[in-house]
Amino acid sequence: MGVGPRQRAVRLYRGQIPSPGRPTVAWREDRVRFWAGIARGLSSEEAAAAIGVSQPVGTRWFRHAGGVGPSLCAAVSGRYLSFAEREDIAIWRAQGGGVRDIARRLGRSPSTISRELRRNASTRTYHLDYRASTAQWHVERRARRPKAAKLAMNKRLQQYVQDRLAGVIQGPRGRSVTGPVAVQWKGRNQGRRQDRRWATAWSPEQIANRLPVDFPDDESMRISHEAIYQALYVQGRGALKRELVACLRTGRALRVPRARARQRAQGHVSPEVMISERPAEVADRAIPGHWEGDLIIGLNRSAIGTLVERTTRFTMLLHLPRMAGYGIEPRVKNGPALAGYGAEAMRDAIASRITTLPEQLRQSLTWDRGKELAQHAELKIDTGLQVYFADPHSPWQRGTNENTNGLLRQYFPKGTDLARWSAEEVEAVAAALNRRPRKTLGWKTPAEALNEHLFSIQQTGVATTG
Question: Which of 188, 207, 236, 208 has its CA nearest to residue 70?
Fold first, then answer.
């Protein structure tokens, strides 16, 4: 029995176009809305919920793109059929509508409808049935115009970039040094206190700006640092392997959107509590009562709080024991910080120590931008202590506290568990520091300087009463 023209057309059609498989869960406009949500600072789960797809789908989109938002137009031109129009075509076609009747209803040219039915019909059945989801899949598949990455096309440039990024380091005599062995790449952000791969580890910016120096006359050996980052983070570029992101200084497997990064540890810091609003009298250290504070961190989420008075350098240490259930109970989102230095625990610890001082010595406290002092407004109500926060990446604005923390590392080294020390032992270390003579105090001790000030306050009070 011979094969008819329609059967030959169907077979040819099936051979030229791959099977669409299972229809996708979202179309182009949905992905545009998803990445718009990511740009606003939403997590991948929140952005997925906002467009009506499951959270695993949003997570997969984000990880597949490496956190880099694809360049998608906000809307498709009106000259092309939309998914809603394709749904109408499928319904009217199933009802027996002709090409011209459908074209008249949609306000389109009959040739547009005829072409749509011919090109984008389903290939999974004997008859060329028209389904809106399959047609949309065909259209979006053909609309892709992936541009080949420059690193994938220029092998010489690719080798240069890879050698500077992930090349083997060498000793002074040219001998290769491998560093830690058996370092596995798991596709996640580099964990803290874990071995990392040793490599030459030039940053993409260093590589991009070094190329004109090494190849001044070769214009083909040029690439931007952003192109290198995208070659690392975006899957399917075919230029650099994703595991080479471990050679970046951050070791970050996924890019963090800027809007999301701005939300970190900043919500409790408002303009009125910035260090720029702090009174000028604090800077000259003439009047005691202004403090600087921070945490020193140890292993297993252990910490000790530090408070240093700017004028006398008097130090108070805050014992921050772990709460019951730490290491046993599972972590609860937005629950109490069982490590012992959550916002509520820090407020109570500071209030209990600072209220032991006279009111004249409770003027202000300048802190780092950590979330542990998120309840600074409540602390001010409890103690009368005005709290200010330093600028980002400006530890010099709390120089007295930073120097004191350096002294404390003699007793509490990095990489040790600070929770093993009792409140009495922590207090003993603070007393030892306060009994050390300081050059900046004319070789007085902080304890002596504070006692002199307290005595002057007492004498002033007696004179005023008399």
Answer: 236
Q: Which amino acid is at 178?
A: T
Residue in the block written with tokens 């109490």? 336
Contact (CB, 8 A) for 141 and 100: no
The number of angstroms, rounded, from the C-alpha of 33 to the middle of its chain's C-alpha atoms is: 21
Contact (CB, 8 A) for 319 and 429: no
Q: Identity (one letter) of the amino acid at 410?
A: Q
Which pTM does this prediction carry?
Answer: 0.52
Give yes or no for a contact between 233 and 199, defined as CB atoms under 8 angstroms apart: no
Residue 216 has what pLDDT?
A: 92
Mean pLDDT value of segment 91-106? 90
Number of helices (H) and strands (E) in the chain: give both, helices first: 18, 7
Query: Picking from 8-17, 310-319, 361-370, which range would have the lowest pLDDT averaged per residue?
Result: 8-17
Residue 316, pLDDT > 80, answer: yes
pLDDT in the model for residue 405 = 93
Contacts of 87 (CB under 8 A, 6+ apart): 132
Residues 6 or more apart in contact with residue 70 via CB below 8 angstroms: 31, 35
How far from chain centre, in Å, is Cα 85? 40
- Using the predicted structure, report yes or no on whether residue 11 has a pLDDT greater than 50: no
Q: What residue ranges do the domains of the chain occupy? A: 5-143, 150-259, 271-465
* Domain spanning 271-465, CATH architecture: 2-Layer Sandwich (3.30)
169-170 vs 386-389, strand pairing mode? unpaired
Handedness of CA 160, 222, 147, 257 (dihedral sign): positive
Residue 267 confidence (pLDDT): 62
pLDDT for 50-76, tens place per residue?
Answer: 888 888 888 888 887 888 877 666 556
How much of the chain is helix, strand and coil, in % rounded to 5?
Answer: 45, 10, 45
β-sheet bridge partners, residue 294: 306
